Structure to design on (383 residues):
């Protein structure tokens, strides 16, 4: 039986992971949970799964859960790191959103864990450092995002020199059918109304701008050792084909499945095995068509920003990611309009002087600089 820790257990990835664990009680035991501040969700999860260890955002939040019954309660970034590297944990599920996942991911790698990674931003920020740590470690990193999981599965048993191109599919988010001239009228509820996936707010906004796909392009480059010029994004509204791999002999392999994150989560937890799943089987006769379109870069400039950041490399992806996080947060707080998100990203990226081959402190310094610049610009726009 594998002992599992979930970082970000109150989010959509965390909740779905708990559902998978519950479905296979002989395979998995929940050892640890982490939430930032969602105490009510934590209380319900702890009552049902009885984890031995818990981490929360801060000590003040921790005081509210003293009676939950866990053996150990940890706080803040130190708590995340301790849960990620705990000796009683076999599998670490990283369902955290944003750059906060970087340090616990590194902790899990250094502790040699089996890691189910559902976070893009850490690899975007510090892909070279993370992959170097992986090479030195016994850790195993399995991607959870449906697109990266699809590529991972298609590449099983294949040699690197057989690979020619990756195709990441995108549903198009909430705005695919909305004219660019109408973007300025969109409200928060419109942006968060994703047609295919039920996800957290930040990733849903990223899906609407296609920044989510841009982050995936950079992430895929690191995960599969592919130059971004050989990674292409296709709009695939049906969200049935989750990604494809083209090989040098012109063959293309695709991974298909229903739009349910429990499938890539289950695969990441059980890898290299596959367990029987009585649900979620794809009914081919219900699929009317499978279509593919090119991305409209004028409507969705954030995808181009990601390609540019990947080509610039160094600290550029960390800066882009940091500004995006700040801009999306400001939009969700209704401080700025939706159309200002790409404007803010482009302005701060153009000011940044990229440092090549940065170490971790330099990446974190660039992240801090970008956030400060973004907040100052947002404050001016909001005043």
């Amino acid at each position: 039986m594998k002992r599992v820790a979930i970082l970000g257990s109150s989010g959509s990835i965390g909740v779905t992971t708990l559902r998978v664990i519950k479905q296979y009680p002989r395979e998995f035991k929940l050892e640890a949970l982490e939430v930032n501040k969602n105490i009510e969700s934590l209380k319900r999860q702890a009552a049902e799964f009885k984890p031995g260890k818990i981490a929360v955002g801060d000590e003040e939040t921790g005081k509210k859960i003293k009676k939950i019954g866990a053996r150990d309660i940890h706080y803040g970034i130190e708590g995340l790191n301790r849960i990620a590297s705990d000796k009683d944990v076999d599998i670490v599920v990283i369902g955290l959103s944003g750059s906060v996942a970087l340090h616990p991911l590194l902790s899990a790698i250094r502790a040699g864990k089996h890691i189910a990674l559902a976070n893009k931003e850490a690899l975007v920020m510090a892909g070279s450092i993370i992959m170097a740590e992986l090479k030195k470690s016994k850790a195993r990193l399995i991607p959870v995002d449906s697109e990266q999981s699809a590529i991972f599965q298609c590449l099983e048993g294949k040699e690197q020199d057989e690979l020619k191109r990756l195709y990441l599919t995108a549903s198009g988010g909430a705005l695919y059918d909305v004219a660019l001239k109408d973007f300025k009228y969109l409200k928060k509820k419109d942006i968060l109304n994703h047609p295919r996936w039920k996800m957290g707010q930040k990733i849903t906004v990223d899906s609407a701008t296609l920044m989510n796909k841009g982050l995936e392009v950079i992430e895929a480059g690191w995960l599969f050792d592919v130059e971004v010029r050989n990674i292409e994004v296709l709009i695939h509204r049906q969200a049935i084909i989750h990604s494809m791999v083209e090989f040098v002999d012109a063959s293309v392999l695709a991974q298909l499945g229903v739009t349910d994150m429990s499938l890539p989560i289950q695969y990441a937890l059980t890898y290299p095995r596959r367990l029987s799943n009585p649900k979620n089987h794809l009914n081919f006769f219900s699929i009317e068509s499978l279509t593919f379109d090119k991305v409209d870069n004028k409507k969705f400039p954030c995808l181009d920003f990601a390609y540019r950041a990947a080509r610039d490399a160094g600290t550029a992806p960390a800066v882009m990611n940091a500004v995006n996080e700040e801009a999306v947060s400001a939009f969700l707080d209704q401080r700025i309009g939706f159309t200002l998100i790409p404007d803010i990203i482009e302005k701060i990226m153009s000011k940044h002087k990229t440092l090549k081959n940065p170490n971790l402190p330099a990446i974190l310094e660039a992240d801090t600089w970008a956030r400060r610049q973004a907040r100052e610009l947002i404050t001016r726009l909001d005043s």
Q: What stands out?
A: The mean pLDDT is 94. The chain has two domains: 2-143, 151-258+292-382.
